[in-house]
Structures are given as structure tokens and as C-alpha cells.
Write a structure and sequence with these properties.
Blueprint: H1 2-12, E1 23-24, E2 32-35, E3 39-42, E4 50-52, E5 54-55, E6 58-59, H2 62-71, E7 77-81, E8 87-94, E9 100-103
């Protein structure tokens, strides 16, 4: 009897659901972007937009993903590591085919770092 009451009480509990932000796919302009723990993808059949969260051993946060899908670029992200282990800072942006690429900050004299 106790088990039934406890189970019924647990089943009546309501848990707040997380409000997920929704982004229109920048590639197909039709689908919605689904953010997952390891990647984000468009839900429209045939679009194929896929963005992995881990880039060069750096994990993109939800904020980075929101920036990328809302404006097409992130703010400057510090701590990427190149092939030789040399750290660098860059923004992540989309190229013309909606692949993720790095955008490097310009120095004071107008040249890229």
C-alpha cells in the first residue's frame, strides 16, 4: 500500500521543462536547428547542416552555438590548439557552403594576427 501511494505521488510530480531556444537553419532557411550535447543539426530532410561542438579539442558552449546560428559567427574564442599544439584565438564562422571555419582577429595595423 505504501509503495502504491509513493509511486502515485511521484507520478503526479511535475518537473519544469527547459525552454530551448529555436534557430532557423541559416543554410536551408526552412528547418530548425536542434542543439545536442555533441553537435547541432538541421531537422529539415535534405539540408544536412551539421556543426560539431568540439573543434580542435575546444568545446563550443551553448552561448557559442547560439551566436553562430543567430549571427553566423561567434565572438572570439580563446584556447584553440593547432596541429603542433600551438594555442590560438579565433572566432568560428560559416563559409559560403556553411562549413565552420576560423575567423582571426585583425591587429591594430589592419593585418590579421
Amino acid at each position: 500500500d505504501y509503495t502504491r501511494r509513493a509511486t502515485a505521488e511521484i507520478l503526479r510530480l511535475e518537473f519544469p521543462t527547459m525552454q530551448e531556444k529555436s534557430f532557423t537553419c541559416p543554410k536551408c532557411k526552412t528547418g530548425k536547428i536542434i542543439l545536442r550535447s555533441k553537435m547541432a543539426r538541421c531537422d529539415h530532410d535534405g539540408c544536412g547542416l551539421l556543426v560539431f561542438r568540439r573543434i580542435l579539442n575546444k568545446e563550443l558552449t551553448d552561448t557559442h552555438m547560439e551566436q553562430l546560428f543567430s549571427s553566423g559567427t561567434t565572438r572570439l574564442i580563446k584556447g584553440f590548439k593547432g596541429k603542433k599544439g600551438v594555442p590560438f584565438d579565433a572566432a568560428v564562422t560559416f563559409d559560403a557552403e556553411y562549413n565552420t571555419v576560423f575567423s582571426f582577429p585583425k591587429t591594430g595595423n589592419g593585418k590579421k594576427k
